[in-house]
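Look over both lines:
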Amino acid sequence: MRKYLKIWIFIMVCVCVMSGCKTSSKNNWELVWSDEFDYVGLPDVARWNYDTVGNSYGWGNNELEYYTVAQAANAKVDGEFLRIVAQKEQMEGFNYTSARLTTKGKGDWLYGKVEVRAKLAGGRGLWPAIWMLPTDWAYGGWPASGEIDIMEHVGYESDSVYTTIHTDAFNHSIGTQVGGHFFYPTCESAFHVYAIEWYPNNIDFFIDNEKVFTFNNSGNGTKEWPFNQPFHLIMNVAVGGNWGGLRGVDDAVFPASMLIDYVRVYQKE
């Protein structure tokens, strides 16, 4: 009997090794939305919108770019990557163009895991971001309904990325924003996976599967935790702005691209 028990244990160990010994917490994520960018042309209209509503007022950040709609010079898929490209060109009274893509109405989620594998645009004056905003603004305009910044990068800090949470109680306009600043010297030259796992009681932030920051639900209401409503994803490359343009804009860096390998969204089964 002991002999057969040893054999059974040996077989189970082998199965575990071959399968990677994934824990149950990793196994019960179900892929619910994705774009692998394995096609050629403009971003898939079934998944992506072009957000331009803030062009007229600098998006509240004094940004310098004009976001375009369905312009391959600013957003295109080459069969391998999505390229969001900031250009030095005049359009509608602006000196720069770029693209701001959203999933609003085509990908809106309450809780789950969001993963984006990307190589960031670099250069002084650039401000690439991967982030989320509420779809219905249940608690009022920004920042009352919240913002989740999965990744932000400013080009004058070529070795750094940021993860940040904004709420009514915690936001940069009053100097109380909550998040992390992380040293990734290859963020402009290599791909990294930027991700969150969003639960009713916390949001965990990851870079290359390493947890780098956690924001917890304090239980003190929506001024601190408005993250109980659907959010959608945004990806853009801004030019200038209160943060991105803090040290000016180097026109020699254009055109500048953020490359996205994939976007994957999971929810619990």
